[in-house]
């Protein structure tokens, strides 16, 4: 890293760290979380980003170097895997450009009850086998053969190994294993390209707001296993099983977050929150089913010298007093739709506040409207420090002139000294 870029990196990183510690930096940092906006701004379609890795990276490079944010947002959270990987898997849990959504649109997750309501006992008895032989075949059409795998624990008995090996010769199992092998090689190529770009950004003076991502334990069940409807029914009909699953998964989530942050040399662990909103469960249910393991995840990360970065989607207007019970000056709370001015009042002495520039305003508003709202956010949320300017959510479509005005106003109006 050249001296100039190293100085820029340290300057930007210091702004972020000061905000997390609830201090006043030299100015309010602006971290826009560009997603497919990078494609539109650079003149390629999201479809191309999924099929041409180098063009995707170049789109991110051009956009970041043009707007020069105080921290970047990783490519691999927008383009999870390349088209060749997802297509080869026949991946069911996502629609991506050219496969279920138009070429010029963002991806969409496909939520379903990938774990059935009567399968909790199987999950509890052997989580590894359940994910291998039930979840993977349901998530990917070309891995359906894994459902035919024999009980692999028998292979630990020496005399049982030959019949287990013979079972693996089943054509459906062979096809699934070969698919895993080939797609893993393709995924490694994408990860290698992304890692090289991440290093390039760092060497160019840009910190990353996060690298490692985990789901809070309840969302891991409600997003990925039971689905929103299934989890909502379980809250009422089998709450004990739901709570046991959330508690059983919690230590694994903490370990993934901590180990990932250490391995990627970035302490900020991204936790997008989905199913704990005012609209999805009552405050009583939130306190009983959602918050305990999320709070423990936050504490575990902080004790491991990591920074929990929570993207709080939806509305948390009734939960602000609850989520205040975390280590002071150690977390980022990024709000989407929550009343951020109320959040600043309740949480301003506890957690760094981030976000709430409406994506709709960046997309359909005027330059003057963007400037006025930017100043209001700085006046209220930036008071005393502890605020990072960002949009409510990931930025796909936005007027470039609005983004320009937003970032420039933050840099000029957001100065503390």
UniProtKB/TrEMBL annotation:
All copies of domain Uroporphyrinogen decarboxylase (URO-D), residue ranges: 224-413
GO BP annotation list: porphyrin-containing compound biosynthetic process
Family annotation (SUPFAM superfamilies): UROD/MetE-like
InterPro entries, per database record: Methanogen_methyltrans (IPR052024), UROD/MetE-like_sf (IPR038071), Uroporphyrinogen_deCOase (IPR000257)
Pfam family, one: URO-D
GO MF entries: uroporphyrinogen decarboxylase activity
Protein name: Uroporphyrinogen decarboxylase (URO-D) domain-containing protein
Lineage per the UniProt record: Bacteria, Pseudomonadati, Thermodesulfobacteriota, Desulfobacteria, Desulfobacterales
